[in-house]
Amino acid sequence: MSKKKVKANKIYSLNQCRLYKVTSLKKLCSIIKITEKELSLLVESYEGSEFYNCYINKDGRPIQEPKKLMYRVHNRIANLLSRIETPEYVHYSKKGRSHISNAEVHLHSKQLITFDIKSYYSNISSELIRIFFRHKLKCEQDVAYLLSKLCTLNDSLPTGSQISVYLCNLVNLDMFDEMKLQCEMFEQKFTVYADDITISGKSVNKSHYNVMSKILERYGYEIKESKTKRFTSNKIPVVTGIALKKTTDVKNNFYMELRQLCEGIDIHIDDASYSQLKDEYYSLKGKAQYVKQLNQKLPKFVFQTQAKLEKKLEGQL
Prior knowledge:
Elements: H1 25-32, H2 36-44, E1 52-56, E2 62-66, H3 68-81, H4 99-104, E3 111-117, H5 126-136, H6 141-150, H7 164-170, H8 173-185, E4 189-193, E5 196-201, H9 206-218, E6 223-231, E7 238-239, E8 242-244, E9 248-250, H10 252-268, H11 274-293, H12 300-313
């Protein structure tokens, strides 16, 4: 099945969502565009693998992708959830926002702390999702329960589903609001990008970090200590992969990798196959576009290698 895009063409408040105050299973089926028989089939077999493709990706992460009928349902629910307005501090899976806009918020702060929530998706349970649909979207109990089952696999958010990138924001807004208020007390900036949280300001120290940790623990999460980083005024901060210099920039090792890629291409350009050169061309083009996206100048060697590749691919070298 070809994947369908999630289109957040409209943005509306939570109480304008079509899933708000769904009072019956018949109405739910109408909204998510399936029959009651299909709903029963999905709920009865949702713990099985019939409707999921489960595998380990190249980074060693377990992925669970819905397929067949479950994919259709997840795509429909994702389209509805994507339109719900979220606070300005949320930058993940949001039209007009990105990991770059997330970093830009902290551009001129003197001190920063970034940290990740440990095992974020796997700790978002079907019960937490049921509570969201029941108390935030005001669905009837049986509807909220069935939605929580449809949106989870083995009691957790599936990592490869379109719904997960929206539910991970929505089900935790109370927790994030609490963290945001805490930061405001100290005139600090606060952003959320999936499981990546950043606080910044004139002063951000261990005590502020400990308060964030306690809030997370109260909601059933914990910080991944190995990913926590504190940046003071004598260090270049890196937020969601973006280096904060005088402006937003790529990290230094990105430029090193870019140079290595170009040098490698220059060395084997006469011996490599057409398909290899084509892959390298698109890889180089993507990296160059990323640098341009941050309004940074590309090194001269990138243009030179790109020009060589274009001529080679056109059969002119």
